[in-house]
Design brief:
Strand content: under 5%
Number of domains: 1
Shape: globular
CATH class: Mainly Alpha
Distance between the termini: 26 Å
CATH superfamily: Voltage-dependent anion channel
Largest sheet: none
Number of strands: 0
Radius of gyration: 20 Å
Structural class: mainly alpha
Helix content: over 70%
Order of helices and strands: HHHHHHHHHHHHH
């Protein structure tokens, strides 16, 4: 009997067979995606006037973040080889960037929802430190390792989590700059601008490879993992960062002179992200309806929730920065889509935990 397809290979083939059983040993580095998704849905709810919901999700996000941090530390202590081998795996390695984005988005929640700059600064500093560590560790190891998969099996939309992590630093830096005094305000805005530009360049590099893999290699249903939605999500968070730079340009004189450039590239990012939405929906129909791929919970599905929430947030912020009244209905529509997707993913997580407890 043929085994059911899996969303992603659980481990690199180089790892011992005995550790493929799951549990703490098999914990995915992409699990922090649920913090990313919960955080952006919370922030979108705040932007659209759903204050009670925003704060409820914020409280839940702190619990999720704390639990995942504890589990990750336990995994590092008990299975250090597995933890560090993830960073050298072409499919699992990019999932580490969810930790960076989770810290940065939680920092944004503290600053926006509570006005807590102190906690926001701590989480922002943690995100920046992790960004440097993961960026140069992962890309260096993947560059120099001897055994490498082909492009067909070595890249997917999850690689764009590196772009999301970079742009999350830009977003949190802009928000932190707004509450900081000179000269730190000037420096934080420059850091945000630099990260925004670097994230855009990284997207171009990676998307060229992903698009090439899309169109010139055979695509099976199990290849089309949920992180392909990051194709759109990476552009959505780039739009959010650009919109914030436009809105906060008075904090840094050089941003005023860059206004036309900022506005042009922000619309460019938004338009690119918008182009992906129908394409991703069509591919989803092909995967689940035509190919009848089984729909079951996986930590990677948070990578599909996050882009929906981010698209709602970025469009709302862009409307405010540029006065696009004709786009006013769009954030509300995508917010409810994101909220529904978040609820389904969270119910799937609870069901998986219940099944695991019964099995134990």
């Amino acid at each position: 009997m043929r085994p059911p397809p899996t969303e992603h290979p659980p481990f690199s083939p180089s790892l011992p067979v005995g550790v493929r059983l799951g549990g703490l040993a098999g914990m995915s580095p992409a699990n922090f995606g649920m913090v990313m998704a919960t955080g952006i849905v919370s922030l979108a709810a705040h932007m659209l006037g759903h204050g009670a919901l925003a704060h409820a999700l914020f409280l839940l996000n702190n619990v999720l973040f704390g639990v995942l941090c504890v589990l990750t530390l336990l995994r590092i202590v008990r299975y250090p080889r597995l933890f560090f081998s993830d960073m050298s795996d072409h499919l699992r390695g990019p999932g580490c960037f969810t930790t960076v984005a989770a810290c940065a988005i939680l920092a944004c929640q503290y600053m926006v929802l509570l006005g807590d700059t102190h906690m926001g600064t701590i989480l922002w500093a943690a995100a920046l430190t992790l960004w440097f560590g993961f960026t140069y560790a992962i890309f260096t190891v993947l560059t120099v390792k001897r055994e490498k998969p082909g492009l067909e099996r070595g890249i997917n939309g999850g690689w764009l989590l590196a772009v999301v992590a970079t742009q999350s630093i830009a977003v949190s830096s802009v928000l932190l700059a707004a509450t900081s005094q000179q000269p730190y305000r000037l420096e934080l805005n420059f850091l945000a601008l630099s990260m925004w530009l670097w994230g855009g360049m990284l997207y171009i590099w990676l998307m060229a490879l992903i698009f090439y893999r899309y169109t010139y290699f055979r695509l099976s249903p199990d290849d089309l993992t949920p992180p392909y939605w990051i194709n759109m999500g990476a552009m959505a968070i780039s739009t959010l960062a650009g919109s914030l730079l436009i809105s906060r340009s008075a904090d840094a004189p050089y941003l005023i002179s860059l206004q036309p450039f900022l506005k042009g590239f922000t619309i460019f990012y938004w338009a690119t992200g918008t182009w992906w939405i129908p394409m991703l929906l069509l591919l989803g129909v092909w995967r689940y309806a035509y190919k009848r791929f089984p729909l079951r919970y996986d930590a990677l599905y948070w990578g599909a929730v996050f882009p929906l929430g981010m698209y709602a947030a970025c469009t709302e912020q862009m409307n405010q920065a540029m006065g696009f009244r004709f786009l006013a209905p769009v954030p509300g529509i995508f917010f409810y889509l994101a909220l529904g997707a978040w609820a389904l993913a969270f119910l799937g997580l609870l069901a998986q935990l219940v099944r695991g407890r019964r099995a134990a």
